[in-house]
Amino acid sequence: MVQFTKLRLHGFKSFVDHTELLIQPGMTGIVGPNGCGKSNLVEALRWAMGETSAKRMRGSEMDDVIFGGSVNRPARNVAEVTICLDNSDRKVPAQFNDSDDLEVSRRIDRGEGSSYKVNGKDSRARDVQLLFADSATGAQSTALVSQGRIGAIINAKPTDRRGLLEEAAGITGLHSRRHEAELR
Ligand code: ATP
Ligand code: MG
């Protein structure tokens, strides 16, 4: 699977200033007091991977991910998150598979929606979602479980739980491609 090596963000939720985090191989823990932004960092990953639901980002509309201002800082109009990936084992879809390092960015401009870039080239949300879905199949897949979701998984209806497990197993990309093929 591709290894996440860096997370860069600015204007995203509480991370108003340019912030860069190195992600080393192995386990990473984020520690800090309540409200310091731990969940916001995990959400930044999920958002740059193509999340479409504002609710899953704990907002009512997608613009809510943009820094909304604080007592001494005015609100921003742009948020941007970049994930750097080590693609040396070349697991991503062919159109992106020509380099060992990949940078996937998503940017949102207030009132104008999101745009994506892969290694500086404009990309579709769909291609970014499939890039992550495909680069993580099987037991080593990327699965993000948010705070409070464990209870939801336990209490979910069997069909919903299957959806969550499929996502964790990394086969969602295959399903959504099959769905697209059936619509054609
Ligand atoms: P806990 O330990 O309670 O889970 P946490 O470290 O996960 O806390 P987060 O939920 O990531 O904390 O961060 C919450 C903080 O982010 C709050 O102070 C909230 O005001 C701030 N925040 C969220 N969205 C925005 C935004 N759009 N603009 C500015 N601040 C924001
Ligand atoms: Mg949290």
From TrEMBL:
Taxonomy, superkingdom: Bacteria
Binding site for ATP: 33-40
Annotated localization: Cytoplasm
SUBUNIT field: Homodimer.
Function: Required for chromosome condensation and partitioning.
Domain remarks in the Swiss-Prot or TrEMBL record: Contains large globular domains required for ATP hydrolysis at each terminus and a third globular domain forming a flexible hinge near the middle of the molecule. These domains are separated by coiled-coil structures.
Family in the record: Belongs to the SMC family.
Name recorded for this polypeptide: Chromosome partition protein Smc
Organism: Dongia soli
Protein's gene: smc
Residues of the full protein shown: 1 to 184 of 1154
